[in-house]
Specification:
Bound molecules: nicotinamide-adenine-dinucleotide
CATH superfamily: NAD(P)-binding Rossmann-like Domain
Number of strands: 7
Number of domains: 1
Helix content: 40-55%
Order of helices and strands: EHEHEHEHEHEHHE
Distance between the termini: 31 Å
Number of helices: 7
CATH architecture: 3-Layer(aba) Sandwich
Strand order of the largest sheet: 3-2-1-4-5-6-7
Structural class: alpha/beta
Strand content: 5-15%
């Protein structure tokens, strides 16, 4: 499939895991991809892989929570390719932590990256996307629709992304712009290294978020993101699609 031929796509968190798989998927389907990430070498590696496969991509480095980053990324995309068609907000952080051990700095950082960063990128992308019948896909989490223990900040941020998505979809519903989010369950990526359990956790509470069969793959989430960005999803707007093998069912 070449559903994104000549379409311009910004992917945040493109250096690893779901973001990397998403950038590669858009690139493989003809998209021109801006690979944005906090980690320069990883962003470069994703862009290089897209180009090596015959696609078009370049890397940009920065922090989604930096208020200036989103404007720079949109400006660079439009300067290079003269349009913007898709924004995939994938960058995110998280960890298991007892609420009694959450610091204000830690709480603020999770909210800043996962929720505020997503908002800032949406805000800067929307004027461009309105010109192209564009689409935004935000990556929330099953933790945004079903409570997870030891995850107060992460759940709050991802629940925020789900409702942010819906609020924007309704606000722009009569315009040519669709805004949806995906809520992955357990996906095998490097982020899981940060989700180490505190000692003496309540195993019964954890059972509620254990996968039924296997972990998902980044490519399985990327495929859903690409579908939501494509014309195949032309009547899907304001949805949160779980990609979780029935975890939240
Ligand atoms: N892996 C899972 O089980 C899972 C489940 C549900 C939701 N998610 C969400 O999926 C998204 C991608 O996670 P992943 O599993 O691929 O993790 P990952 O750690 O492999 O990738 C996250 C990427 O985001 C980048 N990033 C982090 N903070 C950033 C910042 N401030 N600015 C720019 N880039 C930043 C990282 O450098 C990394 O490349 C996250 O939003 C995460 O919350 C993951």
């Amino acid at each position: 499939m070449r559903r994104f031929e000549n379409r311009v796509v910004v992917v945040t968190g493109a250096g690893s895991g779901i973001g990397r798989a998403t950038a590669l998927r858009f690139g493989a389907e003809g998209g021109r991809v801006v690979c944005f990430d906090l980690h320069e070498a990883n962003a470069e590696s994703s862009a290089t892989e897209i180009r090596a496969a015959g696609g078009e991509a370049f890397a940009m480095v920065g922090d989604v929570a930096d208020p200036g980053a989103s404007a720079s990324v949109m400006a660079a995309a439009v300067a290079r390719w003269d349009r913007l068609d898709v924004l995939a907000n994938v960058a995110g952080i998280g960890r298991f932590e007892r609420t009694s051990e959450v610091t204000l700095d830690g709480w603020n950082r999770v909210l800043a990256v996962n929720l505020t960063g997503t908002f800032l990128f949406c805000q800067q992308a929307i004027p461009h996307l309105l010109k192209t019948n564009g689409a935004i896909i935000n990556v929330a989490s099953v933790a945004g629709v079903k409570s997870h223990p030891y995850s107060a900040a992460y759940c709050a941020s991802k629940g925020g992304v789900v409702l942010l998505t819906k609020a924007l979809a309704v606000e722009y519903a009569r315009k040519s712009l669709r805004i949806n989010c995906v809520c992955p369950g357990g996906i095998q990526t490097p982020i899981l290294e940060n989700f180490r359990l505190p000692e003496g956790v309540n195993q019964a509470a954890l059972q509620r978020i254990a996968p039924y069969s296997r972990m998902g793959t980044p490519a399985e989430v990327a495929g859903t993101i690409a579908f939501l960005a494509s014309d195949d999803a032309g009547y899907i707007n304001g949805a949160s699609i779980v990609v979780d093998d029935a975890l939240s069912a």
